[in-house]
């Protein structure tokens, strides 16, 4: 289970039940909302654009779309879009798979199947250049048959009895690419939805199989069932053949928390029900059911908790002292679950970060723990062996400035329980998928063997990757990657595209630039110069663990923006580029970053692409899922918080005077009508306000579907990327 997030996974936290009644403060909250709405109506002349699909709002959107498309959608745009779509639809992409039983499952989109195929194959077939796939669900055919533009959002399999094959799944389908999904029971032997089976209506739903005839469902069941963040506040046990409205409520949280969720762990020998009360993004509690009671795992709410077989695993966000020992943020701590719950289990530190390392994720083979670690934003893989006193040893996997990720193939399969997947990629290195086996020691560990390799999508022979460090305003060294032509002339005339995020402890690591290569790098200006690309590893992210993230929380948010600006200055000072040739892009929380570059550092950038963004930080908690991000940004309804939130609210920073002689960079602001996570209205209002101010070089574009991803299929993704690249290239390339 993961918490709802903006664009990239945030750390999972779990929490405590507060009973099933609605929070008593609800009337006060509604009254306060009415007062706030009245205040904003007087102050905000563009509040009407928050009417998501009203005629006047959509007329404005259509008008802006027409204007933007008339300017950008020409032959050059079409060529860029086609080049990107060719990459996205390429038949020789790696079909990444998940093993369940004897089969390997994959979801696939291409030009013939834009909505996609859910399919599976055998291991022997997967090893072939062109595997033979059994199609389980053709989403294009389903959409055509039902007259709904379904977007596949995943499937949850029901664990079968020992020795049996998987036969049932819960398939999640979004009607528009947003977070709301319909959940339907699917029968694998007949390749059909189960007549009269489980079928949950469209909502922001979390669901778990409790057994073959029972689900744990967290969803919208009417008044009082949702949190202020728009997620489920209550969880019900739904039995086959019964109505959801009649199902027993088994868990509930306070309305001000983010969400409630109950899952069933069906691991043989470790079956249990686990409840989660996600208080906010970084605080939560976890409960394990014992009889009719939920037993709380007693740790501070900012200690991440997960369970694996007989273990409980902890990851503190702040220093955690227990029994006289302090565990630093970002460490990995383990205990025997039964002993810990009984108050007798000793804690064992498995991983302790340094100033230059951070733990990104873990997974488990049958008898080992696999750790994905970053060392100055380059990947390291560590293998932990519990049988040898939890000894850590590195897996020798190659060069720095690349990304490697390791995960178990199937820890419960006796024939391959120690097998792992290893994915290798880099900015200029197409992805390779390998499979290996964890040995008992370094001497007999099997070398991972390549299984699939993707071909190059552009000619990268004359490009190189380098890493640099800029010094931020407070003296912090901030890393960034630069991808540029070899022997780059340092005369400030090179078109450069910066990318950043800086939030929610999400890390930006090297990955193959399959679409950006043809869309930006290999293009040439009239003077024959090619594009360069920069990834900024600013604070707020997780590149150096919780400390790097927490350094830019709430009142310290400005540090993320100072970091990004410091990298821009470093590029200019090194002669890599200049303001006239420097573009930047970011989405979601990265869109908020871009909004602050537009309003706070206009002298540094020639053009900005600001996607699916937060921008009105006065009202963000009242729009879509915004209330769930208060722990990240602060609560604008608390006067003391608004004092600092105001300083990074781009919509309000437009009221501040520009530095003398400065002008706003050319700005493309874009979103999606169906985005039910951030929503399109903040982007609309920002663009409308800039246009009303007489800013001539701002453009707005809004997709009608695709949700927070901004696109629901490869064609829409190609259009979205080409629109951004084309706008930026035209403003900084010559």
From TrEMBL:
User: In what residue span(s) does the Peptidase S9 prolyl oligopeptidase catalytic domain sit?
Assistant: 532-732
Q: Name one Pfam family in it.
A: Peptidase_S9
The EC number(s) attached to this protein equal 3.4.21.26
Taxonomy, superkingdom: Bacteria
Q: Which GO terms describe its molecular function?
A: serine-type endopeptidase activity
Report whether Protease shows up as a keyword of the record: yes
**Annotated spans, Disordered:** 1-24
Against InterPro entries, the record matches this protein to: AB_hydrolase_fold, Pept_S9A_N, Peptidase_S9_cat, Peptidase_S9A, Prolyl_oligopep/macrocyclase
Q: Which PANTHER family match?
A: PROLYL ENDOPEPTIDASE
Q: Per its record, how is this protein called by name?
A: Prolyl oligopeptidase
């Amino acid at each position: 289970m993961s918490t709802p997030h903006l664009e990239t996974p945030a750390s999972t936290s779990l929490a405590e039940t507060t009973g099933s009644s609605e929070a008593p403060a609800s009337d006060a909250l509604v009254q306060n909302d009415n007062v706030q709405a009245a205040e904003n109506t007087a102050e905000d002349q563009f509040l009407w654009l928050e009417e998501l699909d009203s005629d006047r709002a959509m007329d404005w959107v259509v008008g802006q779309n027409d204007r933007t498309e008339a300017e950008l959608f020409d032959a050059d745009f079409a060529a860029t879009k086609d080049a990107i779509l060719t990459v996205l639809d390429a038949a020789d992409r790696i079909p990444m798979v998940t093993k369940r039983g004897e089969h390997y499952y994959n979801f696939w989109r291409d030009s013939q199947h834009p909505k996609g195929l859910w399919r599976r194959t055998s291991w022997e077939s997967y090893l072939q250049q062109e595997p033979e796939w059994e199609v389980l669900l053709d989403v294009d055919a389903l959409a055509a048959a039902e007259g709904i533009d379904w977007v596949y959002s995943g499937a949850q399999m029901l664990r079968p009895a020992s020795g049996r094959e998987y036969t049932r799944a819960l398939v999640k389908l979004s009607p528009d690419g947003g977070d709301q999904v319909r959940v339907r029971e699917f029968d694998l032997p007949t390749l059909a939805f189960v007549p009269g089976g489980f079928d949950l209506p469209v909502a922001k739903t979390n669901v778990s199989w409790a057994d073959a005839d029972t689900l744990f469902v967290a969803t919208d069941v009417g008044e009082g069932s949702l949190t202020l963040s728009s997620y489920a506040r209550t969880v019900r046990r739904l039995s086959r053949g019964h109505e959801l409205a009649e199902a027993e409520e088994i868990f509930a949280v306070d309305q001000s928390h983010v969400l409630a969720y109950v899952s069933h762990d069906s691991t043989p020998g470790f079956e249990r029900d686990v409840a989660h009360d996600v208080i906010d993004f970084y605080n939560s509690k976890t409960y394990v059911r014992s009889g009719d009671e939920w037993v709380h795992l007693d740790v501070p709410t900012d200690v991440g908790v997960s369970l694996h077989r007989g273990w409980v695993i902890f990851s503190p966000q702040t220093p955690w002292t227990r029994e006289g020992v302090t565990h630093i943020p970002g460490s990995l701590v383990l205990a025997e679950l039964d002993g810990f719950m009984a108050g007798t289990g000793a804690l064992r530190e498995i991983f302790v970060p340094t100033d230059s390392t951070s733990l990104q994720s873990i997974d488990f083979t049958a008898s080992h723990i696999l750790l994905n670690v970053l060392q100055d934003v380059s990947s390291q893989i560590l293998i932990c062996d519990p049988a040898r006193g939890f000894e850590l040893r590195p897996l020798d996997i190659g060069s720095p400035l690349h990304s490697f990720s390791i995960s178990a193939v199937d820890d419960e399969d006796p024939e391959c329980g120690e097998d792992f997947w290893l994915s290798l990629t880099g900015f200029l290195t197409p992805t390779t998928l390998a499979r290996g086996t964890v040995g008992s020691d370094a001497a007999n560990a099997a070398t991972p063997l390549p299984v699939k390799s993707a071909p190059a999508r552009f000619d990268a022979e004359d490009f190189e990757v380098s890493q640099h460090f800029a010094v931020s305003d407070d003296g912090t060294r901030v890393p960034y990657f630069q991808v540029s032509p070899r022997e780059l002339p340092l005369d400030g005339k090179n078109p450069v595209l910066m990318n950043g995020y800086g939030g929610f402890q999400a890390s930006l690591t090297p990955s193959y630039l399959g679409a950006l290569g043809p869309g930006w790098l290999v293009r040439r200006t009239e003077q024959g110069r090619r594009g360069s690309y920069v990834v900024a590893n600013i604070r707020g992210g997780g590149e150096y663990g919780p400390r790097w993230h927490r350094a830019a929380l709430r009142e310290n948010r400005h540090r993320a923006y100072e970091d990004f600006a410091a990298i821009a200055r470093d590029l200019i000072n090194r002669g890599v580029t200049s303001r006239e040739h420097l573009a930047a892009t970011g989405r979601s929380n990265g869109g908020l970053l871009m909004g602050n570059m537009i309003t706070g550092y206009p002298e540094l950038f020639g053009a900005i692409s600001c996607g699916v963004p937060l921008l009105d930080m006065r009202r963000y908690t009242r729009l879509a899922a915004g209330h769930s991000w208060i722990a990240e940004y602060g609560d604008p309804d608390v006067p003391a918080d608004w004092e600092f939130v105001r300083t990074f609210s781009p919509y309000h920073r437009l009221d501040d005077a520009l530095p003398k002689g400065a002008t706003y960079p050319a700005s493309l602001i874009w979103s999606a009508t169906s985005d039910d996570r951030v929503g399109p209205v903040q982007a609309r209002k920002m663009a409308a306000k800039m246009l009303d101010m007489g800013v001539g070089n701002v453009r707005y574009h809004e997709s009608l579907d695709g949700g927070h991803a901004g696109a629901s299929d490869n064609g829409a993704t190609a259009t979205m990327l080409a629109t951004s690249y084309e706008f930026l290239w035209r403003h900084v390339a010559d």
